[in-house]
Amino acid sequence: MNFTTMPILNGISVFRFSYDPRPPILVPGRDFCSLSYRISGKVKIKGDAGSFWSESESLTFLPRGYRYCTEISEAGKMIVMHFTTENDCGGVASCVKAPYPKAMLHLFESTADHFASCGCDLALMSMGYELLSESGLCFAPEHLVPRRLKECKKHLDESIADPSLRISDLAQMRGVSDVYFRKEFRQYYGASPLEYVKSRRIENAKLLLQTGLYTVTEVAFRSGFESSSYFSAEFRRMTGMSPREYANKHQLN
Q1: What is the rounded CA–CA span in Å between residue 158 and residue 150?
Q2: Residue 5 gets which letter from DSSP?
Q3: Rounded Cα gap, residues 227 and 68, in angstroms
Q4: Would you call 146 helix, strand, or coil by DSSP?
Q5: How is the chain split into domains, by residue range?
Q6: CA dihedral of 145, 101, 10, 85, whole degrees rounded to 10
Q7: Cα(89)–Cα(33) distance, integer angstroms
Q8: Contacts from 114-117 at CB under 8 Å and sequence distance 24+?
Q9: Is the four-CA dihedral 209, 35, 200, 86 of positive or negative sign?
Q10: Fewer CB under 10 Å: which end of the chain, C or N?
């Protein structure tokens, strides 16, 4: 992911939680940020950035100092990463549907297991950066990002694996020309929409390849590429190796 203000991590802790339904409670501003994966359940979060539902297979980001009310309407489980940064990375409280829930869950579980056994070491910091990168959430200061652009970005993230996704459709959704949308997107997110989409799709493909459950062709189509040859060419261009080479080197046990 391309950040307007790149978080520089200096501390991480990762926990598993189970919860039951309860009335709304106020959560005061905390001195850390959080990124969570909701395995099951349904929770309403209401704060200065508005309200949204965090449901199963969703990723939720809450910035440092964010005050909000939380209401649990359905019992469930989650894994959450609390982290502190050396810089003020800002951030927008937000929630998106994970494009590849099983792969994302595996990444969160691996991070939680590592923290439980080894604490906060260099390997955990690396895993934390990977979680932030894979989340696709916006870490730009809220007041800088136009509301309708954030809505387009959210739609893009939720549709990242859809091969019919077109930048022109997002520009129309934003109510601007294709040229203006590309310029505005790069201004706030540090990359053109096409570069961003390719990067997210390749990162998602990496997760799928690591599972060892899919062929290269299956990974290509599940990641949103319309042909396996184009996918392989882009994968090699961005990683320096073929999808098969990457899978052989990084496949999880």
Answers
A1: 12
A2: S
A3: 44
A4: coil
A5: 9-142, 145-253
A6: 20
A7: 10
A8: 114/14, 115/12, 115/13, 115/14, 115/15, 116/14
A9: negative
A10: C
Q: Which among 15, 6, 170, 189 is positioned nearest to 88, based on CA atoms?
A: 6
Q: What percent of the chain has pLDDT over 70?
A: 89
Q: Considering the domain 145-253 in this protein, what is its CATH number?
A: 1.10.10.60
Q: Each residue of 116-173: pLDDT tens digit?
A: 999 999 999 999 988 887 776 655 555 667 889 989 988 998 899 999 999 999 999 9
Has domain 9-142 been given CATH number 2.60.120.280? yes
d(CA 221, CA 216): 9
Return the structure tokens found at 144: 């800088």
Place of tokens 């091969």: 163
Tokens of 20: 């039951």
CA 237 to chain centre: 23
